[in-house]
Amino acid sequence: MRSSLPDIPEYWFIFQNDRLLLMKNSVPARFPDLHWLSRFKPDFLRQYKLGIFNTIDCFCAELDARAALPDEVEPVPLRKAFEILGNDWYAAAAKAYSVINWDKNHQYCGRCGHATRHKPGTFERVCDTCGLSLYPRISPSIIVLIQKDDKILMSRSPHFPPGAFGLIAGFVEVGESIEDAVHREVKEKVDIQIKNLRYFGSQSWPFPDSLMIGFTAEYASGDIHIDRQEIEAADWYRYDNLPGRPSSSISIAKKLIDYFIAKQSQSS
Ligand SMILES: [Zn+2]
C-alpha cells in the first residue's frame, strides 16, 4: 500500500541522540529532503541502505550529536515518531533504528577487542583478527492475552505510567521454546495455569531490539498470586470495563486487546 507521505526520490531515516529527524509541523510527516541531506551528510557517523519499502529506496543514518539542526527540522522521540509514521512505515523505521544500533554497538569485537569492519552488501560486521561475525540483535519476547469467560487478565508493572495496565509479557530465555516461555512467564508472574495457547501474530519492537510474539490463551486453573518484583497488580477485567489500556496505537498489545473486544462485542 502506498503511503500518504509525499513522493521524493528516497527516504532517509536520520537519527540524532536516538531521535528521528522529521520536518517540523508537517502533516503528513515528511523526512528531511535532499536539500537538508546535503547539509547533514558531512556530519553522518554512519549510514546504510535499508532496501525498498513501499516502492521507495530507504536509507538510514546517524547524525553527530554535536551537529546543529535547522529550525525546520525536529528531533522526535522514537515511539512518538513511529506513531506519526504509522503502520505503513513501521517496518522501515524499526529496521533503520536497529541497523544504526547494530553498527554503533559493534565497532569492536566482543571476543578479542579488535576493531570490526562492515562486510559490504550485508548487515554483518566482522572481526578480521578472530573471525567473529556480528549481526543486528533480535531478542524474542512473548506477550499473551489470557481469557477467562468474557474477561481477560491485565496487570501492571511498577515501571508503567500511573493507571496503565497491560498483558503478561517477557523475554524468551536461552534454551527454552517460545511456548515454554509463555507458560513460564504466566506461572512466574501470576501463578496460574493456561491452556489452548494459540499464535496471534508478531511484531518487531525495536526498543531496543525485541521481536514480540503474540499469543492468545485460555485460563485453565489456579488463583492469581502476583510476583511482587515485576507485577504490582493483576486481575480479571471484563471486555467492556478494561483498565488503562496501552496508549500506543502501534503495539501488538493494543492489537490483541482490540481483537478481544471486537470478538466479545460481536458475541454479546
Ligand atoms: Zn575478534
UniProtKB/TrEMBL annotation:
Its EC number is 3.6.1.22. It is an enzyme of class 3 (hydrolase). Pfam families: NUDIX (PF00293), NUDIX-like (PF09296), Zn_ribbon_NUD (PF09297). InterPro entries: NADH_PPase-like_N (IPR015375), NudC-like_C (IPR049734), NUDIX_hydrolase-like_dom_sf (IPR015797), NUDIX_hydrolase_dom (IPR000086), Znr_NADH_PPase (IPR015376). PROSITE patterns: NUDIX. Gene3D superfamilies: 3.90.79.20, Nucleoside Triphosphate Pyrophosphohydrolase. The keyword Transcription does not apply. PANTHER family: NAD(P)H PYROPHOSPHATASE NUDT13, MITOCHONDRIAL, NUCLEOSIDE DIPHOSPHATE-LINKED MOIETY X MOTIF 13. This is NAD(+) diphosphatase. The gene is nudC.
